[in-house]
Every structure is written in C-alpha cells, then in structure tokens.
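Thread: TRAP transporter small permease protein, structure

OP (GT): Posting the sequence first so everyone is looking at the same thing. Length is 203 residues per the record. Can we get the structure tokens written out before standup tomorrow? I want them in the notebook alongside the other entries.
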Amino acid sequence: MNTLLALSRAIDAVNRRVGRAVTWLILLAVLVSATNATVRKLFNVSSNAWLELQWYLFGAVFLLAAGYTLLKNEHVRVDVLASHLSRRTQLWIEIFGVLFFLLPACGLIMWLSWPFFMDAFVNNEQSSNAGGLIRWPAKLLIPVGFFLLVSAGLSHLIKCVGCLRGQCPDPRDVHTGKSAEELLAEEIAREAQQREAASHEGH
C-alpha cells in the first residue's frame, strides 16, 4: 500500500503542476480575446486564427485542468443521499464510482481520441476557415486531458482505499478551508485595498 500511496503522490504532483500552469492560459485567453476585439473595433480587421486560438486555449484549460479539479475535489457533486451515510460507506461509493464509471468512461474516450488525433497529425489537418490554425494540437488535448483525468482517478482510488485502511486522510477533505470563490474574492478585495492605500500615499 505504501508503494501505491507513493504513486498517488507522484500523480498528484504532476496534476498539481499542470493545473497551476494552465491557470496562465486563462489570462492568455483573456488577452487574446481583448486584443482581437479591440483590433476589430478600431480597424475593422478580424482574424480566424486569433478566434480559433481563443477556442484552443479554452479547450486546453477545460481538458488539461480536469485532473487537477478532481485532485482539489472541485467537481460538482450532488450528495443528497450520500451525505447522510457514514464516511466509510461514502468512501465505498467513491471507489465504486471511480472503478465502474470514471475510469471506464475516461479510458474509452482517451482510447478513441488517439486515432482521431493521429489522423489529423499525419494529414496535417488544417482549419476549414480561411487563415485558420492547424487542427492536430487541439485534437491532441483530448487524449492528453483524459489521460491526466484517468491518472487523477487512479490516485483518488488509491487514497480512498488507503483511507479505509487508516493509512491516509480522506481525499475528499481537501476542502477544509475556504472555497476557491471565497479565496478569489478575498484576493481581489486585498488588491483593491492596496491600490487605494497606494493612491492615498501618493496624495
């Protein structure tokens, strides 16, 4: 079990690094979108390449961060019934869900999407829009994203079993602190206070 828990920690480290790196793609997508909109308004010029880049960035965030989202226990849960059950029963439900739903479904999508990517890569598939981008990088995101999600599912499964055996904490308890929305709101408020304090010092 210790070897499996070590594997789980390694998987979590990879997904954590990917998740943190992907957050910068959100900023890049906003900058691309704002620049594209500004150029279109000021110069009446538009580019399919820039529009498609926005879609690619959004797809990268959505797919590559799925494993990180599972690691942080941020996927939407509807625990109307499970919340009334014992913690041990909830862990067994987690194990059942990962084994019979998450891993098979994600593994199948990963398996089927690989030929989909390879066909685009071998043929150097281009966008059907004039001036658009090549398609294979976007299609590569599908198997890579689901691979990260499958690995995160395996890690979650190991931690659930480890928790039942009393060898690690409950993996669903990563949410011990404030929610991501609360932390973001606090960060925005803190930056606003710093700007206000700086403006007062300037006067």
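GT: Both are above now. Quick notes for whoever picks this up: The mean pLDDT is 87. The first helix runs from residue 2 to 43.
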